[in-house]
Amino acid sequence: MLYCFISGQAEEDRELKWSARLRIALGSARGIAYLHHDCSPKIVHRDIKSSNILLDENLEPHVSDFGLAKLLVDEDAHVTTVVAGTFGYLAPEYLQSGRATEKSDVYSFGVLMLELVTGKRPTDPAFVRRGLNVVGWMNTLLKENRLEDVVDKRCTDAEMEVVETLLEIAARCTDANPDERPTMNQVLQLLEQEVMSPCPSELYESQSDYC
User: Fold this and answer.
1) Apex 97 CA angle, 53 and 31, nearest 5
2) Pfam families in the record, alphabetically (predicted)?
3) Active-site position among 13, 38, 47, 175
4) pTM for the full model?
5) How far from chain centre, in Å, is Cα 86?
């Protein structure tokens, strides 16, 4: 059986521990990187969001719902006259031009990472009423040195150094300039080397993945 992951919850709204969220981030990045770099032709998903990340009984993530996906066969294969996807996850240049690229998926993954860290939907009323989305809200809090206010309060086991690293990666993924965003292979490498390698023991211990 597969469950949807939504805002830090899975399986009948049970909250996920920090270590489980890290594994979901890594597994999701691995799946998207496969679409971008290992498929021929490449695949742009165009609708990366938490409800399209399905979790199995071991909380292994599976990227799902390819109804909007595009094959990058030629230069114009990813140009569309109708913007598709989910509001809150869409890259600004995709909204403006209708041109979906691997970098627009990277932006959506960055939003997904912020959802994992904050436990908030991209269009949570807490910051939408201030005229912000989750990206703008995060950037505002970081400028005010309020790192502890970004993290989901349910994640009592979160280490601030790891949180800071994740937010740095998410910030790069959601850069307004798509040329400044990393590729998904680079994102995967950053997660493996800078997030998972320093703390492997807590991620693979046999314990509950729920708070």
Assistant:
1) 20
2) Pkinase (PF00069)
3) 47
4) 0.86
5) 13
